[in-house]
Amino acid sequence: MPREITAFSNPLVKRVRDLRDKRHRRAARQFLAEGLRILTEARETGRIPRLLFYAGQSAGHPLVHALSVEVEAAGGESIQTTPDILSKLSGKDNPQAVVGVFDEFDVGLGDLERDRSGIWLVAERLRDPGNLGTILRTGDAVGAGGLILIGESVDPFSVEAVRASMGALFTVPVVHTDWQSFLDWLRQGPGQLVGLSLDTDQDYRAARYAAPTFLLTGNEAQGMPADYAAACDLLVKIPMLGKADSLNAAVATAVMAYEVIAQQRG
């Protein structure tokens, strides 16, 4: 039976609100996700929140009810609360109808099966949570095997990244590793490493991509280091016909990803 919390001073409200902070999130090994669509997609992948907060007026919604039942069946807790407390938890003035607390899920390079997909996304020192979320959505859209984050990248479990992913965090495996570990793993099997670069004359549409293709996108501000570019099997360039010298990292990744799958699908 769901319990009810209406007081801002409730210690559970404070603990959950603290998960918006990276330090508390790492200590608890938990993160926040908000919105009925995102939580429903998580549920469809087998990810059930430990805690489910929902507004009283949403209690009768069939998807909210289904989530509540599954949370409690899995040993979690459903909590009916107020829109003001949901706003406090999410940090938004117009909060979603539900907020869930999930355990972080660890995925390592050894967990990846490279024959799962003909395309994989790799991002180096990605800093913007919006870009991370958008790249995850692209990965979901093209059926990518996963997203591999290299170096000091934005936390994929931050509220902003989870929100921007629109549920793709639950459908696209995310691995965080260092460059050398990634390269060692990659060279143990098949895989073409393709880097997006301005320092090449190779047009991205003229190149030929061999599955599995690993698309490497560099840091938003600095691009990829020279030694990373040298390790690529192929460097390609998206032509810029206007005055801008490059595309946004997430947009460039999407353009490249669709070219790769278009070739692989013939």
CATH superfamily of the largest domain: SPOUT methyltransferase, trefoil knot domain
Structural class: alpha/beta
Write the element-wise H/E pattern from the N-terminal end onward.
Answer: EHHEHEHEHEEHEHEHEEHEH
Q: Tell me the CATH architecture of the largest domain.
A: 3-Layer(aba) Sandwich
Number of strands: 11
Largest sheet: 6 strands, parallel
- Strand percentage lies at 15-25%
The number of distinct helices, counting runs of at least 4 residues, comes to: 10
Q: So what's the CATH class of the largest domain? A: Alpha Beta
**Average of pLDDT:** 92
Overall morphology: elongated
Number of structurally distinct domains: 2
Low-confidence stretches: none
Biggest sheet, spatial arrangement of strands: 8-7-6-10-9-11
Question: Between the first and last Cα atoms, what is the distance in angstroms?
Answer: 54 Å
CATH topology of the largest domain: Alpha/beta knot
Quick overview of this protein structure:
With 266 residues, the protein is α/β, with parallel strands linked by helices. 35% of the residues lie in helices and 19% in strands.
Question: Would you mind describing this structure in some detail?
Answer:
The longest helix is centred in the last third of the chain and has 16 residues. The strands form 2 sheets. The chain has a 6-stranded parallel beta sheet, sandwiched between helices. Strands 1-4-3-5-2 form a 5-stranded mixed beta sheet. Helices cover 35% and strands 19% of the residues. Helix 6 runs parallel beside helix 7 and helix 6 runs parallel beside helix 10. With 266 residues, it is α/β, with parallel strands linked by helices. It folds into 2 domains: 101 residues, 60s Ribosomal Protein L30, Chain: A; 156 residues, Alpha/beta knot. The protein is elongated. The model has no long low-confidence stretch (mean pLDDT 92). It contains 10 helices and 11 strands.
